[in-house]
Amino acid sequence: MEGPRDGPPPGSGCLLVLCGKSRVEKDQARSLAAKGSLKLKHDGNEIAITLRAAEGEESSLASPEETFRTQMYMGALSTSRFGGFLLWSPCLPSTQDVVSQNFGELPIGAVCVADFQSRGRGRTKNVWESPAGCLMFSFTVEMEDGRVVPLLQYVISLAVSEATKEICRAKGLPPLDVKIKWPNDLYLNGLKIGGVLCTSTYKSKKFSVSAGVGLNLDNEKPTTSLNAVLRGITSVSHQLQREEILAYFFNNFDHLFEKFLNEGFQALEELYYRTWLHSGQKVVIKEERGDTAVTIQGLTPSGYLLAADDADNLYELHPDGNSLDFFQGLVRRKLG
Q1: Which InterPro entries match (predicted)?
Q2: Domain range list for the chain
Q3: Is the pTM here over 0.85, yes or no?
């Protein structure tokens, strides 16, 4: 990921290829393409969108390197709730903008994938360029209980980690143990390889959540990538493919999300704590009256960090909203 670059200038356009797995989703793709009702704005300017329904199993452009292999993806996708309606583009400002600006037009569970993003979105309004070699996607989720919406990013992060391990097992490869750095970064071998972003709006007693994921698959810079690490631990030449990872992600997310809705996040906590980087981590809270050392115990019900000091006083830790690294700017609230 490199520095931010401007998106397509006004008057230029983006191609979106619409695909469906089921018959209903294929009909939806053809209908949306025919209506031409999807919109996209960048910095207040309307960007022209060319919509095209995929004619066959493979959607393609002139260059094979710019092709998302729909047949591979759909063949590996086993869930019917998420990912069966696909929007793919060779270049977009941001997949997150596509799904958030067109949430009402898209079926719930629809996913948008881009080969290249010129204005990828992160927390605190950070933007960056996401080159080819990354898996970049955003999808739609609908939820009713606003108290648990902030926890969705943890479920998504878990699904990425579980999907990566599962695809390695399925192919007889050494496992890649993707870890979670709270709240929404993905790490491998101590280096950041991706992240999660969720934004939401509230209407008609439901939360419309646009969930975005970026995962470095092939680029060894600026940190490392899944396939670079894989090459270092096995002599097998097989490389992980973004189409397969995306399908495995949705397969895992579907059952994790179902468990989350039915049983609460506590049903996933054991798995989450095995996956994150922070159990027993000591952090220092810097305050005007002095520094306080605390040890992270887990998460509070609202999704913030639970920590204890040497006297076993419990605190909920919040980011201060100013620091790039959450752990460099934590604010504590005493519990109990």
Answers
A1: aa-tRNA-synth_II/BPL/LPL, Biotin_CoA_COase_ligase, BPL_LPL_catalytic
A2: 13-273, 282-334
A3: yes
